[in-house]
Amino acid sequence: MPIFEYKCNQCKKEFEKLVFAGEENKISCPECKSLEVVKKMSATSFMGTGMGKCATSSPKGFS
What we know:
Elements: E1 3-8, E2 14-18, E3 37-39
Antiparallel strand pairs: 1-2, 1-3
């Protein structure tokens, strides 16, 4: 159940939504209730198990 970022084409509001399976086509703007929303491309950070470093940190030898 991932959280996606959306932008409304009608009122231009940007919002996040927890999307359950089967709800992908039923997303509406919380501001104007329009169904004309687009999913935004968002950057995601992952942290490896036991690494103990921020995902934005550069590996050794890289700057």
